[in-house]
Amino acid sequence: MRKKAVMTMEKTELRILAVETSCDETAAAVMKNGREILSNVIYSQIDLHTLYGGVVPEIASRKHIEKICQVIDKALSDASVTLDDIDVIAVTYGPGLVGALLVGVSAAKAIAFAKKKPLVGVHHIEGHISANYIEYPELEPPFVTLVASGGHSHLALVKDYGVYEILGRTRDDAAGEAFDKVARAIGLGYPGGPKIDRAAKEGDPYAIELPRAKVGDSDFDFSFSGLKSAVLNYLNSEKMAGREIRVNDVAASFQQAVVDVLVSHTMEAIDRYGQKKLAIAGGVASNTALRAAFEEACAARDVRFYRPSPILCTDNAAMIGCAAYYEYLRGVRHGWDLNAVPALKLGETN
Ligand code: KG4
Ligand code: ZN
Predict the structure, then answer these.
(1) Which CATH architecture has domain 15-130+313-329?
(2) Do 151 and 174 form a contact (C-beta atoms < 8 A)?
(3) 321 lines ligand 1 (CB under 6 A)
(4) Which DSSP symbol is given to 345?
(5) Beta strand pairing status for 163-169 and 153-160?
(6) CA 151 / ligand 1 centre spacing (Å)
(7) What is the pTM of this model?
(8) Architecture of domain 140-309
(9) Which one in 10, 103, 145, 152 has a CA-CA gap of 20 to 30 Å to 301?
C-alpha cells in the first residue's frame, strides 16, 4: 500500500483516457497532464441525423454502440499507448441524451473495472469550459465563461477549477437550438449554426427588426424562444403578402439579435463581477460574428478574451479529459454505480 503511494507520487505524467457520447458525436481522447492532447478522435453522426432535420436520440445511441470501441481503439493508437499506460478513465455522465450517455458510461466503467483504473465522471458543460485550458495553457481561474451550445446556454463565474457560480442560464431554448430551428425554417437544413453563420455574411443584420429579449427578474438569464417565434411570424407574414424571403437577411438579422443578447449579458457580468478574463465555449462559440463582437467588447474594456479553436468548441473528449484531470486532483472518484444523469446540473455531483 505504502509502495503504491510512493510510486504514484513519483509519477510525473498522468494520462487520462476520456470518452464522450452525450449527443451525436462518439469521441475518445488521451490527455497528458490535463492540458496536452495526445489524441482526439471524433466520429460525428451529423450526416445521419441531417436526413431527419435534427438529432434522433434512438439512432444516436445505436450508432454510439456501433462506434465506441473503434473510436477508443483509435484514440489509444493515435496516442501510441495501450490501456496499461493509462492512469485514469474519464467519461461524460450528464447532461445529455440518456441512451447516448449510457453507451459512454458503460464503456468507461467496463474498461476501468477490467483494468483496475480509477473512474472520473465529468459534467459535459465543465468539459466545454475546460476546452479553454487546452487552447490556452496559461489560463487560470477566476474568469467569466459563456457556454452556448445546442443544448445549453450558461453564463458562469469560474471561481476555481471545478468551482462555478451560475450567473444565468436559458429559460427556454438554448442558443444553438434557436440557430437550428431558424435554419430549418428558412430552408438551410441541419446543423443550422454553421449554415446561418455563412449565409449571414451575405445579409444585412439590421434588415429585419427582431426582439432582444430581457428576462424580467434576471439580468443574466436568456430567452431565445420569443426570438425564434418572431422570425417564424415574420416568415409567415412575408409569405402571406406574397413577398420573396431574403434568406441571407433573415439569417443575418437573427444572428445579430442572438449575438447582441449574448454579448450584452456577458459584458454586464464582467463589469458587475470586476473580472478581467472572458472564456467562451460550446458549439455556438465557433460563430464568427459572436467572436468578432466579443473581441471588440473585450478590447474596449481591456478584458482578455479566450476562445477555443472550432474543433475544441464542438463536442469532443479532449475537453472531458482536461476537466477530469482537475476533478481527479481534487480527489473525485466515481464507483461502479456511476449512472447517466440526463439533467445533471453544473456544480452538482451524483
Ligand atoms: O457544443 P455542441 O457541438 O453540442 C452540444 O453540446 O449541444 O453544439 C452544437 C450546436 C448546434 O446547435 C450548432 O448549430 C451550433 O452549436 N453551432 C453554431 C456554429 N457552429 C455550431 N452556432 C452558430 N454559429 C456557428 N458557427
Ligand atoms: Zn456540447
Answers:
(1) 2-Layer Sandwich (3.30)
(2) yes
(3) no
(4) P
(5) antiparallel
(6) 9
(7) 0.94
(8) 2-Layer Sandwich (3.30)
(9) 152
Best mutation site among 24, 179, 198, 312 for ligand 1 pocket (most ligand atoms within 8 Å of CB): 179
pLDDT (tens digit per residue) in 207-225: 999 999 888 788 899 999 9
Q: Tell me which residue has cell 458503460.
A: 106
Record the cell numbers describing residue 121, joined without a space: 465522471
Instruction: With beta carbons less than 8 A apart as the criterion, state whether 156 and 141 touch.
Output: no
Q: Which of 116, 115, 121 is nearest to 95 (CA)?
A: 121
Q: What are the start and end residues of each CATH 3.30.420.40 domain in the chain? A: 15-130+313-329, 140-309
pLDDT one-digit tens code per residue, 48-93: 888 888 889 999 999 999 999 999 999 999 999 999 999 999 999 9
- Tell me how far apart the alpha carbons of residues 87 and 130 are, in angstroms, rounded to a whole number: 20
Query: What is the maximal distance between C-alpha atoms in the chain?
Result: 80
| Cα 314 to Cα 216: distance, rounded to the nearest angstrom | 31
